[in-house]
From TrEMBL:
Organism, scientific name: Rhizobium mesosinicum
Protein's UniProt name: DMT family transporter
Protein family (similarity comment): Belongs to the EamA transporter family.
Intracellular or extracellular location(s): Membrane
Keyword annotations: Membrane, Transmembrane, Transmembrane helix
First-listed, main subcellular location of the protein, grouped into a coarse class: membrane
Domain EamA residue range list: 8-130, 148-280
Pfam families given in the database record: EamA
């Protein structure tokens, strides 16, 4: 298997795992404070990451890598989880999932800025088309639903795109699982202290679904998913493999409908199908 094909396979697995993040977060914030959920998931994943690094005796990153690790931590360890958790207090996971269709464009832009990639003009046409479809839906629905929730989701997409691109760039040198592990470890001291400070006064009142949501975003969304995702971006190209995120709304909407019994409108499905069709075109002209 060539490196590009491996990158698409790893990226696809990462997208599948990430697709459960927003539904799991939606379930968790029904009983858990969004700030606690953010710091707790990072603390749990950080402890697991530290154990992995010690078990495999990984070398510490160089000083020049620390700035990149801080950027990654601020983008995907703290920024995206916190902003989405806050957004999901105002909008449903089905509504918020559509915003994930903007992630490929954000990732591609930061891939050019930070990764030095240069996709063909046709790539940007397909990427912009998919993003415009998503943005058009959000403007049509979001203004009457929750402007605050939509603004938080848009901010989450921007910081996540930066974290994805920066992590992929660093993964070329350190490795995929090492990058997310070190980013989690860098933020671990702050996350542990914050988790203790914001912990619920009594966990006995927290029902199983909320705890399962916390477990999923801690183990899969915060650690395992990134192992595949960063490896895929590094192997197949940030801009190219990043377009796989256009598939994430499709899987996420399916989960929101089946697990949370949320209403998925025909307009949501139409937008999702339309942006999925942009993946093939964007992939063809990514390099």
């Amino acid at each position: 298997m060539d490196r590009t094909a491996a990158g698409w396979i790893n990226g696809f697995i990462g997208v599948l795992i990430f697709s459960g993040s927003l539904p799991a977060t939606r379930v968790a914030v029904m009983q858990l404070d969004p700030v606690f959920l953010t710091v707790a998931r990072a603390a749990i994943a950080g402890i697991l990451a530290l154990c992995l690094l010690i078990a495999f005796r990984e070398k510490r990153p160089s000083r020049q890598d620390l700035i990149s690790l801080v950027v990654i931590a601020l983008g995907v360890v703290v920024g995206f989880p916190l902003l989405t958790a806050l957004a999901l207090q105002h909008v449903t996971s089905a509504h918020s999932i559509v915003f994930i269709g903007l992630l490929p464009l954000a990732t591609a832009i930061f891939g050019v800025i930070r990764g030095g990639e240069r996709p063909k003009p046709a790539f940007w046409l397909f990427s912009l088309l998919g993003s415009a479809l998503v943005a058009g839906f959000a403007l049509a629905q979001g203004l009457t639903a929750s402007p605050i929730g939509d603004a938080l989701m848009l901010s989450a997409v921007i910081v996540c795109g930066l974290g994805y691109a920066e992590g992929a760039r660093l993964s070329r040198r350190l490795g995929g699982w090492q990058v997310i592990s070190w980013a989690l470890v860098v933020s671990l001291p702050v996350m542990v202290v914050a988790a203790i400070a914001y912990r619920p006064p009594d966990f006995t009142d927290i029902q199983a679904p909320a705890m399962l949501g916390l477990a999923y975003v801690s183990l899969f969304s915060m650690l395992i998913g990134f192992i595949f995702w960063y490896r895929g971006l590094a192997q197949g190209g940030i801009a190219a493999v990043g377009q796989l995120q256009l598939l994430q709304p499709f899987f996420g909407l399916a989960l929101a409908a089946t697990l949370l019994r949320e209403t998925v409108s025909w307009s949501m499905l139409a937008v999702t199908v339309a942006v999925i069709l942009c993946v093939a075109g964007a992939r063809k002209f990514a390099k």
